[in-house]
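Example record for the data management plan.
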Amino acid sequence: MMDGLFGGGSGNIGIDRAVDVARGVAASYPGGELAVDEVIEFSNSYYAAVREQSTGVGAFEIMIDRVRGRVTREPGPDMMWNTRYGMMPGSMMGGGTFASAAPMTVTSSQALDIAQRWLEASWPGTQARSPDPFYGYYTV
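Corresponding structural encoding:
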């Protein structure tokens, strides 16, 4: 189900189909406790965040190809820093999950402050929203 890079082409599966694809990915995970939190449309793909229902913590992020509906893990933090569902050895993609997720060394408040300072330096007047926690990182 997790596929390579997206190909070109015309057409668009549409947001409703992207939501269905994301729900299918969440439902395919053993244990049945993952749910789609949000799906966002971009010019080349859809983004979806999948969360644990019991904790509210983000499990992983996926990208869905707009033309074919193929799915890949969101490149970047989800692949490299996800301490529970990441793609590194011992992770979901490697055949299991980490035994435990280490505690975060940066609080949500600190992550918001870091993001806001970066925005003020790069795009004055913009405002960061509350960080979404994932295992090992935040998405702001």
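Summary line stored alongside the record: Residues 15-101 form a domain with the Nuclear Transport Factor 2; Chain: A, fold (CATH 3.10.450).
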